[in-house]
Amino acid sequence: MPWPSRKRDKGAVADKKEPDAKIAKTEEETSDKEEEEKSAKPPAGSSKSGWKNWKKTKESESGGEESKITYCHWLLKSEPESRLEKGVDVKFSVDDLKAQPNQTTCWDGVRNYQARNFLRAMKIGQQAFFYHSNCKEPGIVAIVKIVKEAYPDHTQFDQKDPHYDSTSRKENPKWSMVDVQFVRMTKRFIPLSEIKAHHLAHKADGGPLKDMMLFTRQRLSIQPLTQEQFDFVLSLEEEKPH
DNA sequence: GCCAACGTTGGC
DNA sequence: GCCAACGTTGGC
Questions:
Q1: Which of A29, A129, A180, A182 is placed for a possible disulfide with A103 were both Cys, Cβ 3.0 to 4.6 Å?
Q2: A39 CA, C2 C1': separation in Å?
Q3: Region Disordered: start and end of each range (predicted)?
């Protein structure tokens, strides 16, 4: 089963403006216990990588509540260059996002449990970096915001869709999506190479990007950032290209 | 295009 | 429940 990271180019959002917090999440929690388990922690072998450290951070920041952490910032990967997946082009660049009605799109096609759970944790108004991946110049190009919280990803039921999941039931959909809206371009392109250089430096000196999931959870397409991580990365847009 | 990283699957 | 084989992600 594919679990492509990014959304793909498809039409506008199904509904209109109204930022309905109501539709959010409903039927999950009940039956996907195992999945939540599986995905809510690092894989068995991977001792103390990203998740744990990040969780630790959040806990200490927020007064340490084990299960009630609220995440506030995100990074969303999307592929700006054409690539066929089951005959369908999954390209979706920031320009494609800006071309959508309302500059808004549903973030469909996520087929990884950990990424899905992060999608489900997103709240209206939260900001995310729009990251270009699998391309010539990987890096952050824009800021987007969540305008609709998690609801069932319709592409899981569409046999023609490259992300069709025959094991998902309508009564209990496995996969979710959110709607995101373009906010603004970053003042300059922030390349992965630059973020990584800071990450490496911070591993040595304990700086904010020390545990950034872009590097500790390499393949995760939807990832949370701490306030400190978000602020630090954003501060890079003010600097001279490195 | 190569290939390291890593999530998933299935045999046992 | 272990773990090798496999498939995908995504930087380079």
A1: A182
A2: 19
A3: 1-62
- Going from the first residue of chain A to its last (242 residues), give the mean pLDDT of each consecutive group of 10, the final group possibly shorter: 42 36 32 43 38 37 44 95 93 98 98 96 98 97 98 95 93 96 98 97 96 96 97 93 71
The alpha helices in chain A, defined as continuous H runs, are 33-40, 50-61, 94-99, 113-121, 192-205, 213-216, 227-235
The HSE-up count of residue A82 (CA atoms within 13 Å, CB side) is 3
Specify the nucleotide whose C1' lies closest to residue A115 (CA). Answer: B7
CATH entry 3.10.590.10 includes domain A33-238: yes
Q: What is the DSSP letter of A172?
A: B
Is strand B within 7 Å of residue A220 (CB)? yes
Whole-number pLDDT of residue A239 = 84
pLDDT at A190: 98
Q: Which residue is nearest to nucleotide B6 (CA to C1')?
A: A219
**CA angle (A51 as vertex; A70, A113 as ends), nearest 5:** 80
List the one residue out of A1, A42, A17, A28 whose CA is nearest residue A177. Answer: A28
Residues with CB under 7 A from strand C: A 2-6, 44, 77, 85, 133-135, 138, 192-193, 196, 218-221
Considering only residues 73-112 of protein chain A, which place a Cβ less than 7 A from any atom of strand B?
A: 112
Nucleic strand B near CB of residue A3 (< 7 Å): yes
Q: Distance (Å) from CA A7 to C1' C12?
A: 23
Domain coordinates in residue numbering, chain A: 33-238
